[in-house]
Write a structure and sequence with these properties.
Number of strands: 19
Helix content: 25-40%
Shape: flat
Oligomer: single chain
Strand content: 15-25%
Radius of gyration: 31 Å
């Protein structure tokens, strides 16, 4: 019942948490070692160890993020200027000693290294040759996007500076000055006045020393020169540590952090460097890196509630895979979050938030295993059209499909046969569906029963195949394991592999029947193989077919445990939808995911109650989430 172990943040939880604390600080967790999995999930307490290499990664990431977050709030001045004739141009000629003359609809493209994120002023000193009273129109673009335009009437004798302030993220960006209303008019008598042209002297970026408004800053919530260094440091670090450590921070803890600012300034560093050092310490603390639950009644053997702050953390990492927001922390500090009506209202609020996509990206992607779709490598010889872009579309199709059930609060049973999906033109062509006329994934109605529901999605079918052929074994194992929680045990190491495709005169069904003749194999294969045969009309990358790889006609007759026969994916989906093990399996997986620990015997009665409520509420995913989040194992230890 709600047992507690020391559990560190998973890679996903770490990435989401620093995003919500510090904003855009890159993807620091991408370089961390991959987390091990247990019960199908990578955040389960008993597999999240702490290797020395991970400690080194945490240290480097904390230093880089503290520096980047502070620079986004407080940036030094920057001024860079490039002469127009010294940077790439699409056309033009030198215009005397000072200008580059754009004598056509072209551009001058200068790449600058923007040292920080925030507002920069883009400038160009320019002049124009006016024809028929119309000045050349100068366009400012940043990375190809139009940000400003000017009519340049200034003459070459008295050029003017034109400028525009824009928000820019730190890094390299291309500032282009373009011209789009070029004209040459032979009817004008004076040859020196026939051409409308743009003359550009230089391009420049400038940023004054800058501080984000306190209402927008991630860290800098006060002015140290007005409030005083130590009082301001206390405000910054108390606020940040409270969010990062997911609890109220004691005055003594705040003072220890502030002492790092004092130490830095005593060594000659500035206030910002001291804050960065303290932020780094917060991010390296066990209070940040681990889910710490300090039992207020450690000597009692009785079940008792977790604290409101611990409940806020459990809830936010269940629904958002991230740190609690201010609303949760404030309710917890007031001791109100554990009140049933308040807890239920917060679950509803959190499910409506965009961060609830974590239930798709972390829970569903691991439960249904479509997180692994981009890593699959089907045979390039047999399937040359399956590239990275198509695999990403396959993965996103399943993600958006599941997300729709969460957002629309549909019955989870309809996952098996819903009459819609998401495709772009390329994925639709691959799946044999009408093209939606879009290069982006679009929701479409599916009228072909062969393409309805989860089991027919190309990504999952590719995931459960070998690189060069389908596998009824793997597909049957996936259906039984992921959808019914009835996965057979792994094969003994001595079992021989099936012969490669095309190397036998027997059909795949006949080969597997021979394989099952081995007593060591029959127990599991007699259950898995007949289920997987129902999906044999789909090839190894999820396209419909009538003949298999060896040219044999596809026989999609299968059998579910209990000797329930079916023919093809539509009948299989209908049987699974009616199977009571399906909602029970979904509930079990979400229960394990929410508690982030293994399933124990004592959980059975609680899970049975969750499943009954799930059934009574028409199998709505939101109801399942709410029932688990308010269950006794979730709210108690």
């Amino acid at each position: 019942m709600g047992r507690v172990q020391l559990r560190r943040l998973s890679r996903t939880e770490y990435a989401n948490t620093v995003r919500d604390l510090l904003g855009d600080v890159g993807r620091p967790a991408d370089g961390f070692p991959r987390d091990d999995t247990s019960f199908g999930f990578d955040h389960i307490d008993d597999v999240l160890g702490m290797a020395p290499v991970l400690v080194e990664k945490y240290d480097a990431a904390a230093e880089a993020m503290a520096r980047e977050a502070w620079s986004a709030d407080v940036a030094p001045a920057q001024l860079e200027r490039l002469e127009a004739e010294a940077v790439p141009h699409t056309l033009g000629i030198p215009g005397g000693t000072d200008f580059w003359r754009l004598n056509g609809n072209g551009s001058i493209d200068a790449t600058f290294d923007f040292g920080s994120s925030g507002p920069f002023t883009l400038s160009a000193r320019a002049a124009g040759d006016v024809v028929h009273g119309v000045a050349p129109r100068m366009l400012f673009r940043l990375d190809g996007q139009l940000v400003a335009e000017f009519d340049v009437a200034a003459s070459a004798d008295t050029p003017a500076v034109y400028q525009k302030t824009v928000e820019v993220t730190a890094g390299r960006h291309t500032f282009s000055v373009g011209f789009d209303n070029y004209l040459w008019d032979d009817s004008i008598a004076d040859p020196m006045k026939r051409e409308r042209a743009l003359l550009v002297d230089w391009l420049q970026l400038q940023r004054d020393a800058w501080a984000a408004p306190f209402s927008q800053a991630r860290l800098r919530v006060c002015d140290e020169e007005v409030e005083g260094h130590l009082p301001c440091a206390r405000r910054i670090l108390e606020r940040f540590a409270r969010r990062a450590w997911r609890r109220t921070v004691s005055p003594e803890e705040v003072e220890r952090l502030v002492s790092l600012v004092t130490l830095a300034e005593a060594d000659g560093d500035d206030f910002g460097t001291g804050i960065q050092l303290a932020v780094q310490a917060v991010l390296l603390s066990p209070h940040f890196l681990f889910h710490l639950e300090l039992d207020g009644a450690p000597d009692t053997p009785d079940t008792h509630p977790v604290s409101d702050e611990e409940l806020a953390s459990r809830l936010s990492y269940f629904l958002w895979s991230s740190t609690p927001d201010d609303t949760l922390l404030e309710l917890a500090a007031e001791g109100r979050l554990s009140k049933p009506e308040v807890l239920d209202a917060q679950v509803r609020r959190m499910l409506a938030d965009a961060k609830a996509d974590a239930l798709v990206e972390s829970f569903a992607a691991q439960w249904l295993q479509f997180r692994a779709v981009p890593s699959r490598e089907p045979s390039a010889v047999l399937f040359p059209d399956v590239d990275e872009a198509l695999k990403e579309a396959m993965q996103e199709q399943t993600a958006r499909y599941f997300r729709e059930f969460l957002r629309e609060d549909r019955s989870a049973l309809d996952l098996l046969d819903a009459d819609f999906t998401y495709v772009d033109d390329r994925l639709a062509a691959h799946a044999g569906l009408p093209l939606p006329g879009s290069a982006h994934l679009t929701r479409v109605e599916v009228t072909d029963a062969r393409r309805r529901g989860l089991l027919t999605q190309p990504g999952l079918l590719m995931l459960t195949s070998h690189p060069d052929e389908t596998s009824p074994v793997v597909r049957g194992k996936w259906v039984l394991g992921q959808l019914l929680c009835a996965e057979p045990p792994p094969p003994p190491p001595s079992v021989p592999a099936l012969p490669p495709v095309g190397s036998s005169s027997l059909s795949k069904r006949q080969q597997l029947e021979q394989h099952r003749a081995d007593p060591a194999c029959s127990g599991c294969h007699a259950v898995m193989d007949p289920v997987g045969f129902g999906l044999e009309n789909f090839d190894a990358v999820g396209r419909w077919r009538e003949r298999d790889e060896a040219g044999f006609p596809v026989d999609a007759v299968g059998v579910l445990p209990g000797d329930v026969r079916f023919n093809g994916p539509a009948e299989l989906a209908a049987l699974l939808k009616a199977d009571p093990r399906l909602p029970a399996c979904l509930a079990r997986n979400l229960y394990i995911y929410a508690l982030a620990r293994s399933f124990e015997t004592s959980d059975r009665c609680h899970l049975d109650g969750v499943v009954r409520t799930f059934e009574q509420r028409d199998y709505r995913l939101s109801e399942l989430v709410r029932r688990i989040a308010t269950s006794r194992p979730f709210t108690h230890r």
